[in-house]
Amino acid sequence: MYFMKALFFSLLCLLSFATHAQNIVIHIDGQTNDISGQTHTAVAPSSASFDMPFDVVNNTGSSAQWRITRKQLSVPTGWTDALCWGHSTDPFGGTCYSSGQMNSNPWTTPGTQTVLFTINDGEYGKMKVSVDPEDNTFGQAHYRYYITTNGLNMLDSVDLIVDYLAATKPPVKEEISITVAPNPSTEFVNIQFTGTEQLQLKMVDALGNVISREVLTSNRKINVSDLNSGIYFLVFEAPGSKSITRKLVVRH
Q1: Which of 4, 84, 105, 221 is 20 to 30 A from 151 (CA-CA)?
Q2: Distance between CA 162 and CA 138 in Å, rounded?
Q3: Total domain count for the chain?
Q4: Could you tell me the CATH number of the domain that includes residue 82?
C-alpha cells in the first residue's frame, strides 16, 4: 500500500511539472524555438566572461513572481558564473548577482520584495547567464536553471553547456597570387607573386617540352626574346599547395 501511494504521488508530481512546463516557454533571446526542458550548448570564444541571454515567457494564464535556481552539474576548477534576472521591460536588465553572491550549489535568487517582480500572462522575464572560464583551463561546464516560486517547487528548467576548447585549427594560409605581365610578351615578362616565400617554376611549350626550370624566391623578370613566337605554359608549384598554371603568349 505504501509503495502504491508513493508511486501515485510521484506520478502526480511528474504530471504537475509537465502541466506547468507546457505553460512556460524558454528560448534564447532573439529566437523563437522553445527549449524549455532541453539543453543548449554554446562555445565560449575566449577565456573572457561569456554571456547567454534567455527569455522566460509566462503563458500560464495568470501572473507570477518567479525566481531562478541555478544548479552547477559539472564545472571545471576556477570557472565562475553570474546571473541577471528581471522583467523584460526593466531598462537595467533586472537585478544582477555576482559569482561571489552565488556562493552555494544550488543557489536561488532572493525572495525579498525589493527584487521580486510580477510577470503577467503573455509577458516574459529576461535571464542573462554569464560564464567566466579560467584562463588555460579548457573543458566543459554544465549548468541547469530552474524556474521556481520558492526555490523548492521547480516549474520548468533549461540546461546550458559551455565549451571552452583549446584552439586546434591551423593558421589560415594566405592565398597564393601570381601575376604574369605583359602578356603577350615580346622581350621580357615580369612574374610577381604573394602568399608564399618561394615558387618552383617550370616553362613548357605547346608540345609539352620543358624549356626551363628554376626556383623563384622573389619577383622575377624573365627574358623571352630568344623564344619562338607561340604559346607557352608557366607551371608554378609551392610547398603544400596545388600547382598553378599560367598561359604565356610570345610574339615577335
Answers
A1: 4
A2: 11
A3: 2
A4: 2.60.40.10
Q: Which residues contact 203 (CB under 8 A, 6 or more apart)?
A: 210, 211, 212, 213, 232, 233, 234, 235, 248
Residues 187 and 152 in one domain: no
Would you say residue 20 has pLDDT above 90?
Answer: no
Q: What is the pLDDT of residues 28-75, one digit of tens each?
A: 998 989 999 999 999 988 888 889 999 999 999 999 999 999 999 999
Q: Please give the single-letter amino acid code of residue 218.
A: S
Residue at a domain's end among 125, 141, 164: 164
Q: Are 71 and 141 in contact (CB under 8 A)?
A: no
Distance between CA atoms of 120 and 77, rounded to whole angstroms?
Answer: 39
pLDDT digits (tens, 9 = 90+) for 162-206: 999 864 444 456 689 999 999 999 999 999 999 998 899 999 998
